[in-house]
Amino acid sequence: MAGVSSCMKYSMFIFNFIFWLCGSIILGVSIWIRASQGIQQDIVIDSSVFVGVDLLIAVGSIIMVLGFLGCCGAIKESRCMLMSFFIGLLLIVILQLTGGILGAVYRSQLEASLNLTLEASLDSFQSTKEEYKIFHKQFHVFEEMNQCCGLVNGPADWGKNFNTDLGSNKICECKLNNPSTDLCSFFQGRYVYTTPCGKVIVKYLKDHLLIFIGMTFGLAVIELLGLGFSMSLYCQIRRK
Fold first, then answer.
1. Which is nearest to 44 in space by CA: 142, 129, 130, 128?
2. What residues have CB less than 8 Å from 6, skipping those under 6 apart?
3. pTM of the predicted model as reported, rounded to 2 decimal places
4. Distances 240 to 50, 69, 71, 77, 235 between C-alpha atoms, Å
5. What is the pLDDT of residues 77-93, one digit of tens each?
6. What's 190's DSSP letter?
7. Could you point out which of 61, 80, 84, 130 has its C-alpha 20 to 30 Å from the C-alpha of 233?
8. What are the backbone dihedrals phi and psi of residue 184, each rounded to the nearest 5 degrees, phi first?
9. What DSSP designation does 162 have?
10. How does DSSP classify residue 161?
């Protein structure tokens, strides 16, 4: 009876060790993003928008478990572990491809969905309550960094707070020596940034969604190789 190919066995082990490391990185980065409450406070996006981060935490954990099963299954030549790895990885590939396809299909609808979330946050801009002052200062810094103003409607989003002093510069103040008509406009007696910060946020998410879709399909190709490795090794062990 044919034995188990050492090349196949150790190739499977190396593949799954790298797979396990990828899972560890995904899990670690996702937990760091989720734990960074400042990100959500600065941009003021509803926590439901970060559901993708929670999903990545789950995916990273599952990939780590599958990587462990694949490594042990290859070294110990365990058919049970290899079959568990194959089934788990197959489910992930199916879900991953489904998520990638849905992401590509609904990418064009991202702006409309996010605008609804941003519009729900406008009250916090126009509020004069003490509890919102910290948020106003944080978002003012965000505006200066990204050369934008307001969320949806530009400087009008600030309402009565538009002329509030939040530091060395006034809200939305265009700090360029020669403000261009594209970047800055004249509003209530001074030059302010024209672009709403909502557009900056949407562009950021769209660009990163495209990268995510590319990584999803690229990783799926590698995972298909893992499926082939595991099933081939499983059949060799069964014939031994």
1. 142
2. none
3. 0.58
4. 49, 21, 19, 10, 9
5. 888 888 988 998 888 88
6. E
7. 61
8. -130, 155
9. G
10. G
